[in-house]
Amino acid sequence: MTFEISSAARSRRSGAIVSSPARRWIWRAVFVFALVWMAAHFITLGALKWGPPVRHDATVLGQMIAVAAFPLLFLLAFGTRNPLRGGIIAGVVGVVALLAVLLHS
Amino acid sequence: MQDTLRTRMGWLHAWVGFAAGLLLFCVFASGCLAVFDTELTRWLQPEASPQTEAFSPQSLDHVLPAVHDLLVQGEKPFITLPSRRDPYLRLEHHDGHEFLTVPYNPKTGERLTVRATAGGTFFYDLHYTMRSGVYGETLVAFVGLALLLTIGSGIIIHLKGLVSDLMLLRPFAARLRAWLDVHVVAAVVFLPFILLMAYSGTFIRARTLFPPVSYLASIENAFRTSVPSTPRRPEKSAVSIPPSFPPLAPLVAEAERTIGAGQTGYILFQPQNILISRTDASGPLLTREHVDFSAEDGHVLRHVLLPGAITHTEQVLKGLHYARWTGVGMRWLYFISGAMGAVMFASGSIIFLMKRRRQSGERLMFRIAEGLAIGSIVGLPLGTLAFFWANRLLPVALHDRPLAEGHVFLAVWVLSAVSGMVWSLLGRPFQGWKIQLFCLAGLGLFLTPLDVATRPGVTFFHVPTVFAATDLVAFFLALVSFQMARRL
Amino acid sequence: MTIILCTFLWSLFLLLQACHEPKMLRFARIQKPAWLQRAAGGRFVLPLVALVLCFAERASTAIPVWVATFSIAALLVALGWAGLARYRELLITAADVRTVGLGKE
């Protein structure tokens, strides 16, 4: 919050027009969407590796987790005050899911 | 606007909710009709009287020649056995959109002369594909994800008043306040249902969004198949269909010994096999357990029941979503909950437009958005009622009648969307809302007289009351539309 | 039958719950009845009885029926409470008009 207040005050002092945060939120939402979508995709792919041995069950489990994780992760990443922190959370989950696809024997 | 969690979530809720909400309104409205698909099919085939004789398994053999014809045409026919929901024996097959159905007398196996119709499954297809095949399916699954996001953000926004405002409905307050209350009551009170439907529905169609193959591989495959590298192999030779099938009554009895007495629901025919499957009404676990018989001599081939905790979880989710296990009472609860889901989207879209009308009412994008809202919120019910009218008014001998009914539905929906858009672009959106709501009220109000006038052997007191229930729901919709048009 | 009974029990519970919500009481312009103070905790028995009824009928479908009847009951109470509030509002307005009229005389 301190960051927002100080930046708004700075813009007011300098006479610049304070832009609506909505424009920033659009880009943030797009960025978070891309990260979270990839994480959900890697979870589905990874389930075939670390999930149950039967392919059908593994696919179903992966999709169950992906569908549940997508909104939770999106809201978590979009909800953080600091956009970078949100991106890091979604990114880390995506990287872990990717590593599970690549490294699981 | 300050950058806080609540404002961020409010922004997400409003925009994602409006963008997906117009389609989700159609999904929920058609879904709550699809819950009564069998009953609606009975309304749409009024020649089959509400009550009929008791089922005799010997009648099944009279359906076999028609089954054979369908198999020769390359269809996958199946017989639905009589149940408490529907006393007729039905031969069905999927035409790419809906399950076309022909009723047979359950005692004699005699084919009933009824009109060809798309039937209640028209709304089932509309519900999950918007009649656009795999593209529609993907889109509906995608808006399902958007719904999950909207629900999550809505809960965060409304967390403080979640319990205290649970039943706070102020219809006589200021307009925006009243619509907000309608939205909150519809959403919060029916949250368990909406959440379950959103999750299970998205999961059921998840293969379109999250396929178990890498996107890169899919793209590579798409390019690879587009290049004609090798000459096409000749078509696989057609599987031979036996000239006659074994008697079905002993097969049903045998299947009941495995599945349980009175638990058989469908008989699916394949060129080499006959699958007798468990009825979906047996419980919330949609196992689709089946016993397979040889189509040549009727000996048992196998008993298929998928095991495992994950499969069972999947079956429970499907069972709860499809609601085929429910009795009449629970079916009505599903219907009302679905209708309230549709009310939630409609009220949400209206609030979105109301909040922005003063500031952006003159903008082109706003007018287009309002036109789309009219086309969705009033257009879909209009198209639905037009579908019912078409079913009764189109000539019975019309060629490709089920398709014609679908075309009437689509034409009225498109007309409603175009007219809504025109009124909105002309800067008179209220006129657009009003005219269409009055049209909706008229179509709903006169559906009962139409039903009485065009139903052969009409009787007012009979059980079950599929005709009376359909007419009453249309009448109720007419009253609500009339009241809304009057108050605009 | 179970559905009707459960809806009734839920409605009763939610009605009592509404009587405990200051916001709902203010909206309907009514005061909390004194006897409700003594039966404050007792209302929570009603949903449990409804749940037992659902399980007694069919265990595999008990939870969906229980939750669905809650939603219907809440809708019924919301509609009923809105009607009550409107009635009370009109009643009080009429009484005010009468008082003003008498005052003028």
From TrEMBL, chain B:
Alphabetic keyword roster: Membrane, Transmembrane, Transmembrane helix
Top-level taxon: Bacteria
Tagged with keyword Membrane: yes
Entries under InterPro entries matching the protein: PepSY-ass_TM (IPR005625)
Residue ranges crossing the lipid bilayer per the database entry: 12-36, 139-157, 178-199, 332-354, 366-388, 408-426, 435-454, 460-482
Name of the featured protein: PepSY domain-containing protein
Species of the source: Gluconobacter cerevisiae
